[in-house]
Amino acid sequence: QVQLVETGGGLVQAGGSLRLSCAASGSILSINAMGWYRQAPGKQRELVATVTSGGSTNYADSVKGRFAISRGNANNTVYLQMNSLKPEDTAVYYCNTNADIWRGGMRRVGLQYWGKGTLVTVSS
Q: What Cα–Cα distance (Å) separates residue 87 from each residue in 90, 91, 96, 98, 119?
């Protein structure tokens, strides 16, 4: 299977910055895309940013110009640089990957995996 481990959450004042990291490990043959989602209290999980294996990125309108997603050199890591943080960015941030894995003697294509999440709290 695949494990995703997020690090970098914490408490920051409004206007500050944080950098989240996520590392994927396991029976990975290739990673098709990685991304970050978030879930605030009482709200549904929403997309923050994604990046494909080809480097194409996609951002939620609410974070465009403030957040930047990037892939690590090892290609199994993803980062989210968050600048100009606002109280409304407070949420649990989850790492996600779409990957091809080897399982049961076969290539399994396009499976989704989630990390356990890391809490980001932005104080006003």
A: 6, 9, 23, 30, 13
